[in-house]
Design a protein that fits this description.
The complex is a heterodimer of chains A (309) and B (369). Helices cover 72% and strands 4% of the residues of chain A. Chain A is mainly α and 309 residues long. In chain A, the strands form 2 sheets. A two-stranded antiparallel ribbon of chain A has the order 1-4. In chain A, strands 2-3 form a two-stranded antiparallel sheet. In chain A, a hairpin with a 2-residue loop joins strand 2 (138-141) and strand 3. The longest helix of chain A is centred in the N-terminal third of the chain and has 31 residues, at 2-32. The model of chain A is unreliable at 305-309 (pLDDT under 50). A two-stranded antiparallel ribbon of chain B has the order 1-2. Helices cover 72% and strands 5% of the residues of chain B. The mean pLDDT of chain B is 83. Chain B has helices at residues 2-9, 11-33, 36-60, 69-82, 93-115, 120-140, 180-204, 206-216, 218-223, 228-254, 264-277, 282-310, 317-335, 344-365; strands at 83-84, 89-90, 154-155, 161-162, 165-166, 171-173, 176-178, 256-257. Classes of the chains: A mainly alpha (309), B mainly alpha (369). The interface between A and B is large, with 60 and 58 residues.
């Protein structure tokens, strides 16, 4: 039972990070019907930039409290990623908005390779450690441990998601985004500046990705130029699980995927009689993705049935 | 250009010259650039096979497959299981290669069946995931039962042998020593020619036209009575079969395989080949495959240049390779989406679409300006 609760907690923490990344996929997909393959890489760049700033701050002002240093890293990483998201949309997607479907997919893959390799050239191939700046304490819940960092990650994710929900549902910008998602042409006729709405969507998604990148590297204590790939894939699976294009769906899908992964990794050894071990953790996301696509392509919360065209 | 026109008027002569060139190429390359370049040629031919296979999926049917290398891996591992000391099996290649192609084809159907009725983007991401799943399994299936030997990979794989004539050794013909790299060159060349023939016949067949119709407009194609799902599935399985075959040949040629050879970057590279060369156009695809196999090898010299210019190797050429591929993908899509050597039809289609799009955007988006 303790293990169950513990894995549940770990899953929820990981899941809230997935949810943040999944939001970026789902918002872009909702508006452009395009999978932004480079989104995982934005997460990675966020983590790397934050770590670089944290390293520099520790060198310059070692007496600052740890939280302030980490905050400094985040405050640089988020704008950098927003700029990156803006640039990605401008360079790789906007010129191809009316091209055959395959074209933007291929530029997206190209971009993600370029970002990965640029990161590798700048920061090297080795893993970069996240310095132990954040509070290390841990609390007991139902016989399981939850660390302060884990609590913090969940709390911040929930806050950010509430903020996003507010923006999308209650503001003028959100209404423009929803209108653009329904029909770009009609929205344009109603006076919505479609191009700037799309750019804003990329920028918001990238800001969330930067936050998620810092969280995931703080959680595992590591960052690596390749970390965005798997994280991006899983977050995309989460977005599809929840119903791609649906913001609440991305949140639900992320949390569910995190829990499934953690429980799966914890119990797969017992279930298969020791044949498969927890090193298959990364496989769950894909199996879930395929299962969802077979049985409920619109996802858990998706109202629109995925187009068969 | 005069030579080109001269040869274009005499296709038989051109074909004869090409055949002679292909026949003596390994000896020319071996004498001119060194023996290691003959192996590069062999790899170029393997990649031509892979690119031809992926071209059926991406170029003909317009389905983006990002896990193509998984089929390559399946073919390679099946060959290794059935013809190496790992399980003590030593079946002959003519039995194993078709089995590998078949296995890859079956997996292609298994993977394609659930996803092909959905939009193309889903296929891209599912195939991407599938490629990773296969790699994770290859990496981890060494315990509790040792099936794949994990990250160490499998070695001592049997070479291709005709009776007692093994291609892994140097043989003497008329007093000239012919090395294994040369022998495999001719074997691979034969396979490439066969696959080109199959791909050409497929393209011109009823199925090939159905693929083109689906690529251009799936709704219209299904309205014309094409069973889009099955026809797409066929493209997917056919591409997978090519991959499985190439995998078996790779396994036999290399004598050693490990999961490292089947990463995502390999899939991306094959995709790059057909995008760069010209999607859906066989000569273009071959050009792309040869270019992208040979160029990275040539890129090794960049290290020497750096040493000569600034005294040290600042950027490892191997690191530069993927960066250049990524840039090539983006730039090609933005400026020359039809590829370096496109078919005439494809080029027209792409540029016609541009004109329509320009008109559309002019009429829709500028209305509010």
């Amino acid at each position: 039972m303790d293990i169950f609760v513990q894995q549940l907690i770990n899953g929820l923490v990981l899941g809230s990070i997935y949810a943040l990344v999944a939001l970026g996929y789902t918002m872009v997909y909702g508006i452009l019907e395009l999978i932004n393959f480079a989104h995982g890489e934005v997460t990675m760049i966020g983590a790397m930039v934050a770590l670089a700033v944290i390293g520099a701050l520790m060198g310059v002002a070692p007496d600052l409290p740890g939280i302030v240093i980490v905050l400094g890293g985040v405050l640089v990483a988020v704008p950098v990623c927003m700029l990156l998201g803006f640039g990605i949309e401008r360079l790789a997607y906007r010129p191809l908005r009316n091209a055959p479907r395959l074209a933007p997919l291929i530029t997206a893959i190209g971009l993600s390779i370029v970002l990965q390799n640029v990161a590798m050239l700048i920061w090297g191939r080795q893993y970069i450690a996240f310095p132990p700046l954040l509070p290390q304490g841990s609390h007991e819940v139902l016989g399981a441990h939850i660390s302060t960092l884990q609590l913090f990650i969940v709390a911040l994710s929930v806050l950010v998601m509430l903020g996003l929900w507010f923006v999308v549902q209650k503001t003028r910008l959100g209404r423009a985004m929803r209108a653009t998602a329904q029909s770009r042409e009609v929205a344009a006729l109603m006076g919505v500046n479609v191009n700037s709405v799309i750019a804003t969507t990329f920028v918001i998604g990238s800001a969330l990705a930067a936050l998620a990148g810092v969280m995931v590297s703080a959680y595992y204590g590591l960052a690596h130029y390749y970390m965005g790939f798997l994280l991006g894939l899983k977050a995309f699976s989460a977005a599809v699980l929840g119903g791609i294009g649906n913001i609440a769906g991305a949140m639900l899908g992320g949390l569910l995927l995190g829990v499934i992964e953690a429980l799966g990794a914890g119990y797969i050894g017992d279930l298969t009689g020791g044949f498969l071990g927890s090193n298959y953790q990364d496989v769950f996301a894909f199996f879930i993705l395929i299962l969802v696509l077979v049985f409920r392509p619109s996802g858990l919360l998706g109202e629109r049935v995925a187009s068969r065209a | 250009m005069r030579i080109v026109d001269f040869l274009r008027a005499r296709p038989r002569l051109a074909l004869l010259l090409l055949a002679i060139l292909l026949a003596v190429l390994p000896f020319l390359v071996g004498a001119g650039l060194g023996k290691s370049w003959v192996r590069v040629l062999d790899f170029a031919l393997l990649y031509v096979m892979l690119a031809l296979g992926l071209n059926i999926v991406v170029g003909y049917a317009g389905l983006l497959d990002l896990g193509y290398v998984a089929f390559y891996a399946l073919g390679a591992y099946l060959y290794a299981w059935l013809a190496s000391p790992h399980f003590g099996l030593h079946l002959p290649f003519w039995a194993v290669l078709p089995l590998g192609a078949l296995l890859a084809g079956v997996f292609g159907v298994l993977l394609g069946a659930p996803t092909l009725r959905l939009r193309g983007d889903y296929l891209a991401i599912v195939t991407l995931g599938f490629g990773e799943i296969i790699r994770i399994f290859m990496n981890n299936l060494d315990a509790p039962i040792n099936i794949t030997n994990g990250p160490q990979g499998m070695n001592l794989i049997d070479p291709i042998a005709f009776g007692g004539f093994a291609l892994s050794k140097t043989h003497k013909f008329f007093g000239i020593g012919v090395s294994n790299a040369h022998l495999y060159y001719y074997l691979f060349l034969a396979f490439v020619l066969a696959l080109i023939f199959v791909a050409m016949r497929l393209q011109d067949s009823r199925i090939g036209r159905a693929w083109a119709a689906i690529r251009e407009d799936e709704v219209a194609a299904s309205a014309m009575g094409i069973d889009t799902r099955n026809v797409k599935l066929l493209a997917f399985a056919m591409g997978a079969t090519f991959g499985g075959l190439a995998g078996g040949l790779f396994s036999a040629f290399q004598g050693f395989i490990s999961p490292e050879s089947f990463g995502l970057m390999e899939s991306i590279m094959i995709l790059c080949m057909i995008v760069l060369g010209g999607m859906g156009h066989i000569p273009g695809v071959i050009l792309g495959a040869v270019l992208l196999t040979v160029l990275p090898e040539a890129l090794r010299y960049v290290g020497d240049w750096q040493r000569a210019l600034i005294g040290r190797v600042a950027v490892d050429p191997a690191d530069l390779r993927m960066l250049l591929f990524g840039c090539a993908l983006i730039l090609m899509m933005l400026f020359r989406p039809e590829g370096l050597w496109p078919s005439r039809q494809r080029k027209r289609e792409l540029h016609a679409a541009d004109e329509v799009a320009e008109q559309e955007s002019a009429s829709v988006y500028d209305a509010r300006g």
